[in-house]
Write the structure tokens for this entry.
Amino acid sequence: MGCCFSKKSKRKSEKELTPTSVGTENTTNNNAEAEPKKYSWDTREKVDPNDYTLKGAKDATIGRLPGKLNGQQLVIQDCENCDIYVFDHSATISIDDCVNCRVVLGPIKGSVFIRNCTDMKCVVACQQFRARDCKKAEVFLCCSTQPIIESSTGMKFGCYQYYYPELAFHFKDAGLSIFNNNWSNVHDFTPVSGETNWSLLPEDTAVLDYVPAPDQESEFKGIRVSADGSRSIVPLTRGGRRKDSDESCLFVFFCGDYTTANARKLIDEAMGKGFVLIQTKEVSMRPEDANRVFQGSAEDFTELITKGPVVALELNGDGVVEACRNIADEVFSGTKVFVSESKNTSGRDVDNFFNFADMQMGL
């Protein structure tokens, strides 16, 4: 029996075997071999570890200028008698085996870990602060969580006071609030009975007496630095030191375009009248939290707290409640704020808010 092919099948077979088809197939194969598939990690810029390491320096001024770290981590190791300036934000920083160094660290999104260091003087802003196996250090600190020391002695802490032009932007890039500073709430993991491993620096301590501004012969000479408390990006708070007065006032700003500027204005006004800033917090609240914190005034603020975090300040001094209410009327008349109503209830207001804030932040 003979075989029969349709004309359509025959044409298809001939087309499949045309020289053009064969050539195209070969070209495609050759191109595939010549151009292997590229992945995102193949085109990623190569990182030089030396750009993120400061190691083995002695009697030198070293560090990083703004824009050089740009959110990366940094390792500082085996440095002696150095001035170290990191004028940039970073992910984490570790400082190991350093002796007699003066250190300024820009805002750190995560943790700074100082290990096995002696006679250090530091200005640090971070999410977490850890020190282990350290001897004698003075630290001007802004820390969002509770600072922790372990197996360390002679540790002294003061409130962060510092300014350079890019610092406010670096705080924002690092995700740190200038109002969340627990610098004086130190936890010692290894306390020794009858001994004190840490203490607070005198309130009038000058930062530049411990950590000088960059030498004018160094690469950092163009950075305009100030450690004046009135110019500090982070508000200067008294923290855990004894209060001068039994009277405190709670002043709360709600989320808006000018919240930070308003809080700074209040601080300037209150301190100009002789009052003292004890502590500040920036924290998110839910409508149900308003009843616990603001009690009788809760309904006035329920909608406002849904717009974003609130900024609260505790101010202290005889007559501070009346003064703050006057400031609210005269300076912030167009802004919705919470201010303690009287001296009799202001202590409760302060406790209610800051106990709530500490719980929210896990302190």
Remarks:
- Residues 81 and 110 are 26 Å apart (CA to CA).
- Residues 1-22 have pLDDT under 50 and may be disordered.
- The longest strand covers residues 118-132.
- The first helix runs from residue 7 to 16.
